[in-house]
Amino acid sequence: MSGSGFAWSDAGGTYAILPHLAVMVLWGAAAAVLAVRFFRWEPRPDVTR
């Protein structure tokens, strides 16, 4: 795909996009962990001190 904006491979023949995809996977995994940890369907009870 000429001119698509993505460099699928660099001059050495290795995939140049893999490090970027790895960063996206790490961000997605971190977001999933936080969502599972903190998201609740029901509101938490009001806690007064």
Secondary structure tally, helices = 1
Which band does the percent of strand residues land in? under 5%
Q: Tell me the helix content.
A: 40-55%
The major β-sheet equals: none
Task: Please count the beta strands (DSSP E, at least 2 residues each).
Answer: 0
**Unreliable stretches:** none
Query: In one word, what is the shape?
Result: rod-shaped
Tell me the structural class: mainly alpha
Amino- and carboxy-terminal Cα gap: 61 Å
Query: What is the element string, with H for helices and E for strands?
Result: H
Structure description:
The protein is built from one helix and no strands. By secondary structure, the chain is mainly alpha-helical. The mean pLDDT is 81. The protein is rod-shaped and about 60 Å long. Helix content is 43%, strand content 0%.
Defining traits:
43% helix; 49 residues; mainly alpha; 1 helix; rod-shaped
In short:
The protein is an all-alpha fold.
SSE blueprint:
Elements: H1 18-38
